[in-house]
Structure formats: C-alpha cells, structure tokens
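Before relying on records like the one below, remember that each one covers exactly one chain. Contacts with other chains, cofactors or solvent are not represented anywhere in the record.
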Amino acid sequence: GLGFAVILLIDQFAHARAGQALSAESHGATPYLVAVALSIHSILAGAALGAEEHLVGSAVIFVAIIGHKGSAGFALAVSMMRGGLARARAWRILILFSLMTPLGILIGVVGSWLLDDRGEEVFEAVFDALAAGTFIYIATVEIVAKEFRAERARALKLTLLLAGLGLMAMLAVW
C-alpha cells in the first residue's frame, strides 16, 4: 500500500504542478511521470533483489524483474512517443531508466550488509512490498486504465491482460 501511495502522491503532485485546469497530457508531463514512476519501481525492485539473501528468493525476484522490464521499457517508450519527446531526450531518459535497477541492487546489497539478521529481513520485506505497490500503481493507473479508455482492440487488450495475469500467477505458484 505504501508503494502505491508514494507513486500516487508523486503523480498527484506532478499533475497539480502542471496545472489543475489542464490535463498532464496537454503539458507533455505524462512521459516524465511514467519515467519517474517506473524508475522508482525499478530502484525498489532492484533493492529487493539486492537485499534477498536466499538463492531461490533471488531467482524469483530476478525472473520477475526480467519478466516485466522489457514491457516497462516498451510502455515508457510508447509514452515518450505519444508525448512527442525529442529522440535525444527520449534516449537520455531510457538510459537513466535502465540504470535504476542496478542502482537499486546496490542499495539493497549495501543495506543488507549494514544490518543484522532481523534488520535485514525487515529491510528485504519493506523493499519487496514497496516494489509490489509501485508496480500495481503503474500497471493500473498509468498503463491499463489509459489503454482501456481507447475503443480500439479492447477485446484483444483484455485477452492479453488476462493472459499476462495468468502467466504471472503460474510463475508465482511455481
């Protein structure tokens, strides 16, 4: 819940700064909001991976990160294209975005190294929960909700969404 709330607060603050009368899209802020939200999520997911002390847990988090990093990058690129960002600026944002997970891993490793066993468990659990909350926010508010507002290919979008949820559920059980 806290991860969801943090991204919600950042999103609402950015929308308020962009102007209450106009939508964020009209200011071209949406690509930046998506970049910030996905970057925060990437740092938190990386920290969760870096903090994980068990090989199996690390493997699960790694597969989860790899499983959606490409989709997150694609969503960010689409957002930047729709927002009309210049190619050079878009590349800089994508490069920064790509560095966020390794930065998070470093934070997680250092945090785990500095804490005792119980503190490390709490640290790991907090970053796992924050990463999950940010992912839920980004997926529901920034991506899925906007995609379903458009009338085009709704059945296909719904089918792919349900297939993705099914695949992630199978991965979680596995």
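The helical segments are 2-18, 24-27, 30-51, 55-82, 87-114, 117-149, 154-173.
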